[in-house]
User: Fold this.
Amino acid sequence: MFDLYTVMKSVDIDLSDVQIKQFNIFYEMLIETNKVMNLTAITDYDGVAVKHFADSAAIHNVYDMTKVRTVIDVGTGAGFPGIVLKIIYPWIEILLLDSLNKRVNFLNSVIDALGLKNIHAVHGRAEDIAHNNLYREKYDLCVSRAVAGLPVLSEYCLPFVRTGGAFVSYKASGCHQEICDAENAIRLLGGSLTNATEYTLESELVRIFVIIDKIKPTPSKYPRKAGIPSKEPLR
Assistant:
């Protein structure tokens, strides 16, 4: 079994004893709930430590998290990267957004068990929630590990980001054509593609962090109605 402190140290994160305990409780809850709900295909401790915990934390190497005060995690699923970031950066206010209510219930149980403050899980679709003034263009940073094409993710995520903030998409290797295909969509949504940085984790997981700066407000017509962005991606 990997030592979690060492695994996180590999992505330049130093954990306290309290944080290690929080991660271990999170792992236990994830695996127990996964028996009755599909949260992750990765269930062994080493796999979760590297492919969920360390992978979520690796954004630290490509984006200055010390300047971030508000984060939204769109399509958070089992809480990756949002809950991981909250454990590491307790001062950050985080909103976890997911379209499946039973996952939101799981997230709330984790938040309570870990004693986390200023983190909330909301049930809803990004296409709807992004038109709510409580959330629209309110965040320093939007993150997403959700599996969707970058033109679609950009339409989901950029409306949440304030001008001067950023959207960071966690993508797999081989996404360069996808990035090219998204450039016009990013521009239409008020963003500017800043960087796409490749990061190798534990010599096995290659992650591409696509960093999109928000340079002007997103036009009010975006995101389009629920279902349309995925069926008719912006080009």
